[in-house]
Amino acid sequence: MSLVAHQRILIDDYFDVIVQHKASDLHIQEGQPPKMRLHGDIIPIRDQPLTHAEMKQMLSEVAGPRRWEAFDKKGDADLAYELNEDARFRCNLHRHLNGLGGVFRLIPNRIATLEELGVPTVIKKFANLKGGLVLVTGPTGSGKSTTLAALIDYINSSYARHVVTIEEPIEFVHNNKLSIITQREVGEDTPTFATGLKNAMREDADVVLVGEMRDLETISLALTAAETGMLVFGTLHTNNARKTVDRMIDVFPSNQQPQVRTMLAASLRGIVAQLLMKRRDGAGRIAVNEILVSTNAVSSIIREGAVEKLTDVLISGRSEGMQFMDDAIQRYFDEGLVTAQEAYMKAIDKQRFAPHLEGKMGEIAKAGKSRTPKIVRPG
């Protein structure tokens, strides 16, 4: 793990704004005013565009000499930066059409508990498992890292285990409690996710967190590790359980997919898909989850390659802690926590919420009704 040694620099003024406003991200681009993402919206911080000199100074100071030299050659860099004891940032430096750019995600130093996050209680059960594969999925910025950090912290506080995390970059920093936590950064402590995962299998690890499962080798090793008795947490950029299963299998060549379906059916313990929705009252965003718990029926569906049946299982599996994404969205809508427009935008079956839309958007949604497939819900 590597943190940039801190002394006050130019970009810290913008980081202070992010912290003070409780924004999630800072966006800076050469030739554009600096902006922040607040409750999902992009808002300018100042009117004047950033100059090349300002951008070079800010990015080079954040990166430090060695990383800046590497960035100068590659045009991309991922790293972590510590503002103070209360806030860290996950940083992406890049080049674009008009020059230099950077995106900085705020990572609170204090790890929230699962209870504080308000996620369904069944998610905690995944941390109590001795082995298997648990996937936490969702688009960029949906809070996957925050949920996983809470799960790891719960394990750290409850069990004496060896937990290895493989991240790019390291986001939440875990101090040893009952467990031993080994955090490794891709590009610094290990060359790739796959290499880090392969080595974790030789390091007496009980639990492994794989920050991103984006290639065949990493996914294959994760399945093997889960089969051999390790508890593996992994992330994918998919929006729901069905797409997650498809992605896990489709990354393999067609001749290997039957074997992969069998391995996934045997090792999968659960999928937590997460989205963030804007609150109706404007007071931030709220996490909504789809939860698949592996059962005999789920294993059979995966082995058969009939993933379209997972929707029925999710809807009918409430007694086992399962939750279909649209049902969770419906509950928030019924409770008045989110608007009809937000529910419509995030739902899988958009026509479920189209009748509640008003104005031009409602007209467009209703006009598109015949083109939107309807999810058939069991009786």
Q: Care to give the gist of this entry?
A:
By secondary structure, the chain is an alpha/beta fold.
Itemize the secondary structure elements and their pairings.
Elements: H1 12-21, E1 25-29, E2 35-38, E3 41-44, H2 52-74, E4 76-84, E5 87-96, E6 99-108, H3 114-117, H4 122-127, E7 132-137, H5 144-158, E8 162-167, E9 180-185, H6 193-200, E10 207-210, H7 216-227, E11 231-236, H8 241-250, H9 257-267, E12 268-278, E13 285-293, H10 296-304, H11 310-316, H12 325-334, H13 340-346, H14 359-367
Parallel strand pairs: 7-11, 7-12, 8-9, 8-10, 10-11
Antiparallel strand pairs: 1-2, 1-6, 2-3, 4-5, 5-6, 12-13
Helix pairs in contact: 6-7, 7-9, 8-9, 9-10
For this entry, give a set of tags.
379 residues; alpha/beta; Beta-Lactamase; seven-stranded mixed sheet; 14 helices; disordered N terminus
